[in-house]
From TrEMBL:
Protein family per UniProt: Belongs to the short-chain dehydrogenases/reductases (SDR) family.
Protein name per UniProt: Short-chain dehydrogenase
Keyword annotations from UniProtKB, A to Z: Oxidoreductase
Cross-referenced Gene3D superfamilies: NAD(P)-binding Rossmann-like Domain
Source taxon at top rank: Bacteria
Alphabetized PROSITE patterns for the sequence: ADH_SHORT
GO molecular function, one term: oxidoreductase activity
InterPro entries: NAD(P)-bd_dom_sf (IPR036291), Sc_DH/Rdtase_CS (IPR020904), SDR_fam (IPR002347)
GO cellular component, one term: membrane
Taxon lineage: Bacteria, Pseudomonadati, Bacteroidota, Sphingobacteriia, Sphingobacteriales
Pfam hit, one: adh_short
Amino acid sequence: MDLKGKTILITGGGSGIGLEAAKQFLEIGAKVIITGRNKSRLDAAKKAYPMLIAIQSDAGNEDDANALFDKVNELGGIDILYNNAGVGVPPKNLGISNDDHYKGATYEMEVNYLGVIRLNNLFMEMLKSRQESAIINTTSILSIVPSLIEATYSASKTALAFYTKSLRAHLWILGASVKVFELLPPLVDTDMVADRDDKKISPEKLVKGLINGLRKDHYTIRIGDTKLVYIFNRLFPKLTFGLINPKKINAELKP
């Protein structure tokens, strides 16, 4: 896929992976629109990269999504919708009754899964009208093997992974020109996991891998350890589950 000259909308683009993606897409000659809930982060991103268009918008909010579509339409539309925004609620023990746990799971599903479907549906006809267009959905290494301490987050990303594969097939059957990519990151060094000492890769490395995959039309883009986990899980599922969920988490799960 040729990315130069394309207009790309990146949700959750005010920091972390989204901001790094905005930077690298600008460097290769794309026009970039970013969204996010935090206005101060959007303002800082705009100051750092004046070519950006920044629109405050919550990826899990229906009214925000409709307003975003109208603004983007007024700007001339987009060629690529990059659903990068995602949330992870601090882990809870599934074996303990807790209303906050349910609320957290609902929030994760609203942003990580249902919000993506909403935006894809809103922008679908616009994307179909373009000669070459794409949707990029960010799932996770945890859509291959779940994390016991991030169970509902894993579930939201697994739901998105199945939806992404189905959407790709549906659009192919319809003969639509919209390409559907799935990005599967490992743990990435962002603010969301700043307190964890696990192995991480940099947003820069992740986005370079994404752009390389897009250019080669690799519809499933596995980066770093995600490649190994995918292979190991097919051959040794129990071993892979243990690697993602080492015994030390037993202590974390106890009340």
